């Protein structure tokens, strides 16, 4: 079985480095991806961090454990190469924008709360915590700006790709 074939059977697949992915485990109700998938020397490696066994995972996938090994006819040390996953730049940009929005809303909430209180009522240790919260809020605003810039760059790259595809088709 190839890595592409295995990944197509899973939900919420995300890359985690070269030859490594994480996905929702199909053997149990999984809200947060807990299944690690990677390419080993002899085959595909699966590990559910929630505790599902390899037998349970392969049974839920409708495959056998032997299917995880690379083809025996493949020369030693050579495994089938997988096609690079094409990243949806618009969807990725949207995720960055959501992260930026989350940070902006959190910072706005902290700043509104701080503006509504009188600091004369607080002891010094609570004032220190309040100042730290305000500092984190401003750091969140800076991170939001960074994330929005990344999202803008991804959308621009997606636009260039789309225009290149349209001009080649014409």
Shape: flat
Main sheet overview: 4 strands, antiparallel
Number of helices: 4
Low-confidence stretches: none
Distance between the termini: 38 Å
Helix content: 40-55%
Total of domains: 2
Determine the strand fraction and express it as a percent band: 5-15%
Spell the H/E element sequence: HEEEEHHH
Mean pLDDT: 87
Rg on CA atoms, Å: 24 Å
Describe this structure in words.
- By secondary structure, the chain is α+β, with helices and mostly antiparallel strands.
- It folds into two domains: 3-68, no CATH class; 89-169.
- It has helices at residues 3-7, 54-61, 89-115, 124-169, and strands at 11-15, 20-24, 35-39, 44-48.
- A four-stranded antiparallel β-sheet has the order 1-2-3-4, with no helix packed on it.
- Helix 3 runs antiparallel to helix 4 (124-169).
- It is flat, with a radius of gyration of 24 Å.
List the helices and strands and how they pair.
Layout (H helix, E strand, L loop, with lengths): L2 H5 L3 E5 L4 E5 L10 E5 L4 E5 L5 H8 L27 H27 L8 H46 L1
Antiparallel strand pairs: 1-2, 2-3, 3-4
Helix pairs in contact: 3-4
Describe what is shown at a glance.
By secondary structure, the protein is an alpha+beta fold. The protein contains 4 helices and 4 strands.
Which keywords apply here?
170 residues, alpha+beta, 2 domains, four-stranded antiparallel sheet, 4 helices, 51% helix, 12% strand, flat
């Amino acid at each position: 079985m190839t890595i592409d074939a295995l990944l197509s059977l899973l939900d919420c697949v995300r890359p985690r480095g070269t030859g490594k992915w994480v996905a929702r485990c199909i053997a149990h109700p999984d809200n947060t991806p807990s299944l690690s998938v990677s390419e080993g020397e002899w085959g595909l490696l699966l590990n559910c961090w929630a505790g599902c066994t390899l037998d349970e995972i392969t049974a839920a996938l409708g495959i056998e454990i032997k299917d995880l090994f690379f083809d025996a006819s493949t020369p030693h040390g050579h495994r089938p190469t997988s096609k690079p996953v094409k990243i949806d730049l618009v969807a990725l940009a949207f995720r960055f924008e959501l992260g930026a929005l989350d940070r902006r809303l959190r910072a706005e909430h902290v700043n509104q709360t701080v503006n509504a209180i009188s600091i004369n009522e607080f002891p010094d240790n609570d004032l220190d915590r309040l100042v730290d919260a305000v500092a984190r809020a401003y750091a969140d605003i800076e991170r939001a700006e960074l994330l929005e810039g990344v999202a803008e760059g991804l959308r621009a790259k997606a636009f260039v790709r789309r225009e290149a595809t349209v001009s080649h088709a014409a």
